[in-house]
Design a protein that fits this description.
The chain is mostly beta strands. The protein contains no helices and 39 strands. The protein starts with a strand and ends in a 6-residue tail after the last strand. A hairpin with a 2-residue loop joins strand 33 and strand 34. The protein folds into two domains: 291 residues, Tachylectin-2, Chain A; 194 residues, Jelly Rolls. It has an eight-stranded antiparallel beta sheet, with no helix packed on it. Strands 25, 27, 28, 30, 35, 36, 37 and 39 form an eight-stranded antiparallel beta sheet that branches.
Length: 506
């Protein structure tokens, strides 16, 4: 049985998974984007549907002026006695916390704070009913801290350091499992870059001492220079109903050598157990885009569906997110249309401009949106941004310059902002078109039925490697801005469609 990796393409890093009966649930990191922590559901491990978010309210998720790649780190999802728990870190605000619900597709509770340093927390429920909280220990101590936790209050007790890993840098993302009488502690090491890896240890006591696996690392692509998939690690384990074990983990697909721009994605691999009781992810073999593995139930993996406008319910679809906490008075959803009003803020500020985006989930993609906008002052603009972060984005927009209406393409790369193309227009309605492959973007405008190519751009300049280390990926964002002034009116977006050019379906 074959399946394709990644199972979640685009910026969906730090996956965590749990199983309830025949249903699997998975969450990933979201950093400065709102709502936070998407929740996915599957019955077969390869076909996933987003059913909601864990953090949908300002009372749960304060992202005001959170810097790029800060905010919500590495969530863990667990289920116990009819309740789902999601535990995570808001790095620049409240630190570690958890929320809970009986319906993962519905609303989750307000946060319960946990007074323990570090990031990447996880919960472990033991057979005797006790629950434990583990995180990396932060700056105070290299390694992991384990505590008993009272889930009604978040209070910790019996806190002690446990296994520190094999010596790789940045030990993080700890998870504990109890299997055949052994407590297994699995962590990520090496940093979430080319040296990323997954390691594991075990003990007969949850507090240790832990014996390091002789086969560590049990997952890494450190020596896989020629493989498109790099930086594999940050894994979570799950057992299927048929008794087989599986791992979800992050990795990225490099384009130019050492460059990636879609973000860290979610991959899947089988777990093989050695005769002496150690789990090896894919038997320590390299992870491939096409995997040969006997999936439980032999499901047929479906290609990712196109993303189309879903603004007719008074809110965006689950694919769409804002940049930090949105100012909702600048967003209107009306009969299948999205209306945006720009503020003085631009996309080049670490703030909350008028922005609603979807992850670039197709490497070879085709995105179109029809825009109606009447800029009344120079500088007012609305359009689509290929957005990585505040100092790395390409924008195609309808605007006014020197009293004349035009479509522009702007390239922002580090401290350089450049208008790369300008097309005068006499209309207030245009269709903006972006086509991508692994190395390039092509920007066009369709005016009065005629498509006019404006310019191209390289994917490498909206990649992690071209800038200060970041943890996110590229979005296609609908936006509006007054470039230092509030816009007078709303821009109207209709007929947004983003599809895979390799597996095009409508």
């Amino acid at each position: 049985m074959r399946y394709q990796n990644p199972i979640l393409s685009g910026f969906y890093p730090d996956p965590s998974i749990c199983r309830v009966g025949n249903d699997y649930y998975m969450v990933t990191s979201t950093f400065e984007f709102f709502p936070g922590v998407p929740v996915f559901h599957s019955t077969d491990l390869v076909n996933w549907t987003q059913i909601g978010h864990c953090l949908t309210r300002r009372s749960q998720l304060d992202l005001v002026r959170v810097p790029a790649s800060k905010g919500i780190y590495a969530p863990t999802i667990r289920y116990h006695d009819g309740v789902f728990y999601m535990v995570t870190t808001n790095t620049r605000k409240c630190g570690n916390f958890y929320v809970f619900t009986t319906d993962p597709a519905g609303e989750w509770s307000d946060p319960i704070l946990v007074d323990q340093d570090g990031i990447d927390p996880s919960l472990f429920f033991d057979d005797d009913g006790k629950c434990y909280f583990i995180s990396n220990a932060g700056a105070k101590e290299q390694g992991m801290l384990l505590s008993e936790i009272d889930l009604k209050t978040g209070k910790l007790s019996r806190t002690a350091p446990v296994w520190k890993g094999t010596g790789g840098k940045a030990p993080e993302a700890p998870h504990i499992y109890k299997i055949n009488g052994w407590y297994y502690q699995m962590i990520a090491e090496g940093g979430t870059e080319l040296g990323h890896m997954e390691t594991i240890a075990r003990s007969r006591d949850v507090f240790g001492p832990y014996e390091s696996c002789p086969y560590n690392p049990i997952l890494t692509h450190f020596s896989e220079k020629g493989n498109m998939i790099q930086a594999t690690g940050h894994a979570d384990l799950v057992q299927a109903p048929d008794g087989s074990w599986w791992a979800v983990f992050l990795g990225y697909r490099q384009t130019h050598q050492y460059f990636h721009h879609l973000g860290r994605e979610t991959f899947l691999a089988p777990v093989e157990w050695t005769e002496d009781g150690w789990p090896l992810i894919n038997g320590k073999r390299a992870i491939q885009l096409t995997m040969d593995a006997p999936l439980p139930g032999n499901p047929v993996q479906q290609p990712r569906k196109p993303i189309s406008t879903r603004f007719d319910e008074g809110k965006p679809g689950l694919d769409w997110v804002y940049l930090r906490n949105p100012h909702m008075e600048n967003y209107r959803f009306d009969r299948g249309c999205l209306e945006l009003r720009g503020t003085a803020l631009t996309l080049s500020e670490e703030d909350a401009p008028t922005f609603l985006g979807v992850r670039q989930v197709f490497m070879n993609g085709d995105a179109k949106v029809t825009l109606s906008f009447v800029p009344e002052k120079d500088g007012e603009e609305a359009g689509v941004s290929v957005f990585y972060k505040f100092d790395a984005h390409y924008d195609i927009a309808l605007t006014q310059r020197e009293g004349k209406r035009c479509v522009i393409v702007r390239k922002v790369i580090g401290d350089v902002a450049h208008i790369a193309a300008e097309l005068p227009v006499d209309t207030d309605t245009v269709t903006l078109h972006i086509v991508s492959d692994s190395l390039h973007y092509a920007f066009s405008a369709i005016v009065d039925g005629e498509e006019k190519f404006l310019c191209g751009a390289l994917t490498r300049y909206v990649s992690t490697e071209a800038h200060e280390l970041g943890f996110t990926g590229v979005f296609l964002a609908l936006y509006a801005s007054g470039n230092g002034q509030d816009c007078s009116g709303f821009a109207r977006f209709t007929e947004f469609h983003f599809c895979d050019r390799e597996n095009a379906t409508v």
